[in-house]
Amino acid sequence: MAVTVKTFGSASEAAGALSSDRTARYLGGGTLVMRALNEGDVSISTVVRAQDQALTRIDASGPRITLGAGVTFARVLAERDLGFLHAPARSIGGPAVRNMGTVGGNLFAPDPYGDFTVALLALDATVAVQGGFGSRDIPIEEFLQARERQAGTLVLSVSCTRPASSEAFRYRKIARIKPKGGSVITLAAHLPISGGRIAGARIALGSMAPTQIRARAAERALEGRSLDAATIAAAASAATEGTSPSDNALGSAWYRREIVGVHLRRLLSGQE
Amino acid sequence: MSKVPLQFRHNGRDVAIFVDGGTNLLVALRELIGDMTPKFGCGQGGCGTCSVLIDGELHLSCLTLAETVAGRSIETLDGMKQGPNLHPLQRAFADQFAAQCGYCTPGMLMAAKALLDRNPSPSRDEVIEAISGNICRCTGYEPIINAILAAAGGRVSA
């Protein structure tokens, strides 16, 4: 079925068109929307685009970085100042998908995709969105919890604070195929250290629930402690709490529950 | 539904077509331009056989909205040979038995060209990474990797 394509010069015009039409979808890199159209998704009758340079801007100079929603993973990888995001960016697709897929689109990628969003969730990112009535900033966790209702809003950018060191932010995607493959599970950990103890631990998991989630019980096991073997064991044994993984071709829910603690232990103890 | 006029460069030649809204670039290339070298595999971004270069960058044509390439330069496998001569990558694929059924070959060659255009002497790991978005069910990949390395190293019979 043919769809109507509406291209706007500014993000705000595109946001207006999105919020006023329930059958409209925003086209970023195409890896989600074009796939849906190729599969004959008749719920989409309008495709909205914006050619707004603000959507492809990267601000990586300061302690807080901002990525326009239309920034591709290839551009993240080309940016030396974004080294802490290279592992999640590299874990997505092959080169063609990384040339197309965007940071903003990844927020909407359903399980087993959306690996970059796992990293952003651990980093407590803020999502700037524009609806019909202006723009606002939403914590990423809140954004993900209401993701199904975000279709009428346009994501403008995501921002987060740069981790203090490479040790403070860790990421791992477990896939069956190397170097490319869908996620069996994806893990990210932000472990700020203050006076030798973890202060503000955030653990994020992908493919362990319908959207990316935080492993709050594991975070509690880490909080205020030093990252020693006993603490790591406690966090690993709490990793499944609050998760609701499902079966898919890449792995069963049972298997995901079995391995998430193992991989969290390896991630926290710095093992390959 | 009205058709939309679209102009772009296809293997160095300007083309003008009319597309339906929502048409992907793969359909535009195959059905409207008549370039059958990019193949339809999955339509989901999982197989890579529809790979083309857009302004020199590797993209999946099945996930590219045709209207977004207005004014841009598209390269497909059809434009790879140099006059009557095969491109060194094509020669290497033939010499190294890198094609069996051949369905993945157009995408593999475009992914390999995207690599060598930027990195003329890649390592084996860089070759593996460059074709990681392209699935081959016949060769087991080794002949393809060897062919790309041979083309990069100039070890190809002309």
UniProtKB/TrEMBL annotation, chain A:
PROSITE patterns, A to Z: FAD_PCMH (PS51387)
InterPro entries (alphabetical): CO_DH_flav_C, CO_DH_flav_C_dom_sf, Diverse_Substr_Oxidored, FAD-bd_PCMH, FAD-bd_PCMH-like_sf, FAD-bd_PCMH_sub2, Mopterin_DH_FAD-bd
Gene Ontology MF, one: FAD binding
Gene3D superfamilies reported in the protein's UniProt record: 3.30.465.10, CO dehydrogenase flavoprotein, C-terminal domain (3.30.390.50)
Keyword Protein transport: no
SUPFAM superfamilies, A to Z: CO dehydrogenase flavoprotein C-terminal domain-like (SSF55447), FAD-binding/transporter-associated domain-like (SSF56176)
Keywords, in A-Z order: FAD, Flavoprotein, Oxidoreductase
Keyword field contains RNA-binding: no
UniProt domain FAD-binding PCMH-type: residue ranges: 1-167
Protein name: Xanthine dehydrogenase family protein subunit M
From TrEMBL, chain B:
Gene3D superfamilies listed in its UniProt record: 3.10.20.30, [2Fe-2S]-binding domain (1.10.150.120)
Keywords: 2Fe-2S, Iron, Iron-sulfur, Metal-binding, Oxidoreductase
Gene Ontology MF term list: 2 iron, 2 sulfur cluster binding; metal ion binding; oxidoreductase activity
InterPro entries tied to this protein: 2Fe-2S-bd, 2Fe-2S-bd_dom_sf, 2Fe-2S_ferredoxin-like_sf, 2Fe-2S_ferredoxin-type, 2Fe2S_fd_BS, Beta-grasp_dom_sf, Diverse_Oxidoreductases
Domain 2Fe-2S ferredoxin-type: 4-80
The organism's place on the tree of life at top rank: Bacteria
Keyword hit for Oxidoreductase: yes
PANTHER family the record matches: OXIDOREDUCTASE WITH IRON-SULFUR SUBUNIT (PTHR44379), XANTHINE DEHYDROGENASE IRON-SULFUR-BINDING SUBUNIT XDHC-RELATED (PTHR44379:SF8)
Name this polypeptide is given: (2Fe-2S)-binding protein
Protein source organism: Bradyrhizobium rifense
Lineage: Bacteria, Pseudomonadati, Pseudomonadota, Alphaproteobacteria, Hyphomicrobiales
